[in-house]
Write a structure and sequence with these properties.
With about 525 residues, the protein is mostly helical. The chain is about 80% helix and about 0% strand. The two termini are about 10 Å apart.
Amino acid sequence: MTHPCRPTLTRDIESTEGKQAMEIRDTVAVGSAYRWRWAALAALLTAEAMNLLDATIVQVAAPVIHADLGGAASDIQWFNAAYTLPFAVLLITGGRLGDMVGRRRVFAVGVTAFALASLCCALVPDAAALIATRAVQGAAAALIIPQTIGLIRVMFDGAELARAMGSIGPVMGLAAICGPVLGAVLTHADLFGSSWRAVFLVNVPLAAAVLAVIPLLREDRAAVRPRLDLPGTVLAITGAGLVVHPLIQSGAAGMPDGGRLALAAGVVVLVGFGVQQRYGARRGRRPLVEPSLFRDRGFPAALATSTLFFAVMNGLMLVVVLQVQVGLGEDVLTAGLTLLPWSCGMAVSSWVSGTRLVPRYGARMMFVGLAVMLAGLVSAIAAYAAARAGAYPVFLPMALALCGVGNGLFTVPFFTTALTRVRPHEIGSAAGLLNAVQQFGGTLGVALLGTVFFHSLTTGTRAGGTSGAASPHAAGPAFGLAAGLIVLAGGGAALMRAPVKRAEPEGRAEPAERAQSADG
């Protein structure tokens, strides 16, 4: 952006030079393919997989970490939530930073910070230090993930761009399968006495490999430098933290009065965040969230659906691990293998949904996926009810496989349908907001469903039973609540398909929106 005091002639020269540079870059991109593009793509995909691996690995190892480091039972939930919460609220800010100073530069900073935070996680002496370093990891991931799509687009073109983008799904599916098993194997193997610390150390060589390839990435940034919305970021972090903290800290006695006050304050702060975003847009600023996205009820319905669905997905994976390890006293390998059918079902059904079913049946597959997942949840409740006291629920893996199939059938048409509701100048904000809400929903799920499990388990053991006998009955209410959330998600999905209503003709934007669109 040029300085307003510069002469008009200077601005004209800079404009002409900028157009020529863009034309030269486009000619090079079309005329000659970038030599190192596939090696660079491998680095970007490794970074994406590293983020997903870290979340699922730690979920499986969390009970072992707690047994070693001690602390309150709620720390088990914080080991995951401390990562996903900053990741969620800083995602859009991370994308803006890439627009401002260069996506390759921000990507490099994020990977470096992620590697150092992972090393610190492996060396921490207590639970509080691990929660703090996990938060740093989440913030670093928020710098990494928003840059990958932009960096891929600047190195690929035409049919190769479609191939490069299409490779993200299978890699994420493989990471989803490997995460629980790798976390279980590394923790169970206890290599050189590392136990659970190995699940964090595995990130260090992966990050080092990515950093070695970063010089091969092409730099890319927005044509016009956007501004950071620091007040909006602070409000989002504060509001989300105030909502999540009391949910996790609620014990068997329920939420204390201080927790209720914090929860209410969090809701007020998040409402204030919405007001601040709308006010900033009216003043011609570029807020974190594009306010025009909320003029049609379909996109808010997509945000609510995403929050509910991913709360179920992330929360139940933790509940399964807790029931197997904390309740039954089984080892970490058993917990990891219990989750494997879920991951495999999700990976296979995602591929089938994207290649065969969605192109043919479209958004209707969302409801098929939710129905299959609901059937899986009901089957899991039945598997827990049928299990003998203190015994492993033998039918649980089959029920979890059904949940995974429903997961994969839903997610592909969901994101496609959600983004068809938005106009071109809203796509960047919409995609960032959907990703952020997905992470925030996962954090809420860990807080809510994990707390329901711990409350039920504590109540059952106080009634005179053992943790092994009480754990299936403790998992049942968590799965029942999850089933209710899936039903609500179905209602949100139905609203997503409602006819689009616009306050202005399609393709027309108000002055503030046009200014934001020009910013990138």
